[in-house]
């Protein structure tokens, strides 16, 4: 088999431990996976004598050959030589690449585990045939991994090896399974280079039916992720819209009308303080609110065509488990998710919760104040005080931060403040509407998330436009409420704000977009 013909889409790494293989026969499990279409197999045995290992490898090589699939041996160049199989996979603590290449020859397939840009560049430079990039997510299969790099880490490596001109094949490894494989592929893709596939152990070897599991993974790998159902089609429209200076009325109007006409479900998993207010905001803009914090309900609710808001305002262990269930359900149904990382930097618990949520699913919109967005981006050492917002970044830095986070997470990022910044990673907008009065009452940040969820649930446009429309609707309503002569304090403001939200919706539905003249 020629090296360039190897199909890395689904790469099977074996594990004979009772916890994963159970009492089944390894050759049988691998053959089942080969029947499903696994394109490359690595025998990975951490225990056993050399003689025994060679026998195992020989038997497995016979199986792999039947399917014309290469067999590599983890770490053991001697075993690969003894068996005459197609190559080896070496880790950073194994034999060095140059020596392995010298012993095995130029036709052997040699893969290298890398978890940093430096290691990746070195392996490409040294002539590795492919890189196993990881560890993507923490995994019980291998607990002595050095670095959990996430999809952002994989992406960074892909970008940097592409920049250096290498075309080395790549797979990612570590905690990849059916529930995250599409997201891992999508979010890992660099600007110039994507992954060739994924390597898995337990998702196949530990499955009750390895053939069905491998087939399912391959189907997922070959089909567009549900959360991209209309994103791909809209991407074109988006770049065209942002190239020409857009006519606001023609983009904002349809979004607000769509909410009015479709009454989308806005499923809020939100904190105790804002449930009532957020539900009233949802009604005022024409959405159908449900405040449901129990994760088991999410699978049914996700089928109703709405969107989910995960508002981390009241975080506790039960809450977190519920968020993760709901996130998975909405991702699987291909319905959008808005993440509001309330108070993200305030406590260690919240910082960890942010990481857990970000690793567990795909988020369409991340919305927070400056401190929260900095924490989500990572590396923010400042201690955030409660959930209050304070600002230290310049306007240019804010715009750049939201754009970089949107690019990294492949989603829309909103940073709220006196001026709000919104980006999909390609276009970045600043919104100067709103009123300081929004900061004088509680729940106004949270119910902006609710408003955004309704707009992306019923959108007929790309996500960025939907989010922008929701923000303008929300902030201009607040401005109008604040300027009413009868509004002298926070109480009257709240009532007037709900009224203005509703009035803007009705005006827009009947074709009157004069309120939009206030947009800045
Ligand atoms: N290497 P599972 S993680 C063999 O990070 C291996 O280099 C890793 O197992 C690395 O698919 C890993 O069951 C185990 O999570 C992957
Ligand atoms: Mg190793």
UniProtKB/TrEMBL annotation:
Cofactor(s) demanded: Mg(2+)
Gene3D superfamilies noted in UniProt: 3.40.1190.20, Aldolase class I
Keyword annotations of the record: ATP-binding, Kinase, Magnesium, Metal-binding, Nucleotide-binding, Thiamine biosynthesis, Transferase
InterPro entries reported for this sequence: Aldolase_TIM (IPR013785), Hyethyz_kinase (IPR000417), Ribokinase-like (IPR029056), ThiamineP_synth_sf (IPR036206), ThiamineP_synth_TenI (IPR022998), TMP_synthase (IPR034291)
UniProt cross-references to Pfam families, sorted A to Z: HK, TMP-TENI
Thiamine phosphate synthase/TenI domain sequence ranges: 10-204
TM annotation in the entry: none
Pathway(s) the chain acts in: Cofactor biosynthesis; thiamine diphosphate biosynthesis; thiamine phosphate from 4-amino-2-methyl-5-diphosphomethylpyrimidine and 4-methyl-5-(2-phosphoethyl)-thiazole: step 1/1; Cofactor biosynthesis; thiamine diphosphate biosynthesis; 4-methyl-5-(2-phosphoethyl)-thiazole from 5-(2-hydroxyethyl)-4-methylthiazole: step 1/1
Reactions it catalyzes: 2-[(2R,5Z)-2-carboxy-4-methylthiazol-5(2H)-ylidene]ethyl phosphate + 4-amino-2-methyl-5-(diphosphooxymethyl)pyrimidine + 2 H(+) = thiamine phosphate + CO2 + diphosphate; 5-(2-hydroxyethyl)-4-methylthiazole + ATP = 4-methyl-5-(2-phosphooxyethyl)-thiazole + ADP + H(+); 2-(2-carboxy-4-methylthiazol-5-yl)ethyl phosphate + 4-amino-2-methyl-5-(diphosphooxymethyl)pyrimidine + 2 H(+) = thiamine phosphate + CO2 + diphosphate; 4-methyl-5-(2-phosphooxyethyl)-thiazole + 4-amino-2-methyl-5-(diphosphooxymethyl)pyrimidine + H(+) = thiamine phosphate + diphosphate
Record HAMAP family: Thz_kinase, TMP_synthase
Protein known as: Thiamine phosphate synthase/TenI domain-containing protein
Organism: Remersonia thermophila
Species lineage: Eukaryota, Fungi, Dikarya, Ascomycota, Pezizomycotina
